[in-house]
Amino acid sequence: MVRVGLTAERLAAAGAELADDVGFEGLTVSALARRFGVKDASLYSHIKNLRELRQRVTLYAASEFIDSIAAAVAGRAGKDALVAFADAYRAYALAHPGRYAATQHQVDPELLAGSTVMARTADTTYGMLRAYGLTEPDLTDAVRLLRSTFHGYISLEAEGGFGHPREVQRSWERGVQALHILLEHWPRDQDQEKAQEKDQEKEGGEER
Predict the structure, then answer these.
(1) If you average pLDDT over residues 80-91, what whole number do you get?
(2) Which positions fall inside the HTH tetR-type domain (predicted)?
(3) To pair with 58 at 20 to 30 A between CA atoms, which of 49, 51, 115, 179?
């Protein structure tokens, strides 16, 4: 790579590529500087330190990640949207292991403030789940379930953790189908139901 035109944005993009090659934990200022054929000091004109570099890579990867999912989900609803969401999630994570690892890290609020990635992620994820008739706090519970399920499955798959001869792809498909059935029959929150009953009783009393 050439030195001309170094910017924080270019460093984030190049850092994402490097993370895929050496792992997110292997991403360092020195390693990235060598890719550009410059000294470390040249990068510090655009980033404060390694922490900022990694957080910029996190934002870059997270934006790329949700854009790929949003494109897959567009125009779909219900089970079709869930399958598209899940498959796009898995495809990105397996194709870009370093970038995916980056998306699991938090970003400082001041750096996050200049990005729309969190809003886009929420719009895409919660929008897909609302088709199942979920509202808060069930929406957040469902998001956490999907994220932990996808992440756990993909992490095991990437590490060769499935030793049974059963085809991994078929297990993935069945798992997503099971999630669809669960979302369609999401258990009601008892505390929420009691609160709604009290509200209804209160409204009925006021009418009388």
Answers:
(1) 98
(2) 5-65
(3) 179
